[in-house]
Design goal:
By secondary structure, the chain is of the alpha+beta class. It contains one helix and three strands, in the order E-E-H-E. Strands 2-1-3 form a three-stranded antiparallel beta sheet. It is globular. The termini are close together.
């Protein structure tokens, strides 16, 4: 598994907030999917409230 940095923004009460997170995944598509899953479970953010702008291998 490789490490990826995922950057983007999500909608919060105060407007759009930028984020950057590190994810362990097999490829970029899996890293993006895990980002959606993590934000949904930890923060209650729906997929439509999350915009992934960049997935970068470390």
């Amino acid at each position: 598994m490789s490490s990826f940095t995922v950057r983007g923004k999500f909608q919060s009460r105060d407007g759009w907030q930028e984020f950057e997170t590190s994810i362990e995944a097999d490829n970029e598509e899996v890293a993006e999917e895990r980002t959606y899953t993590n934000f949904g479970s930890y923060h209650g953010v729906k997929r439509t409230q999350l915009e992934v702008e960049e997935v970068e291998a470390q």
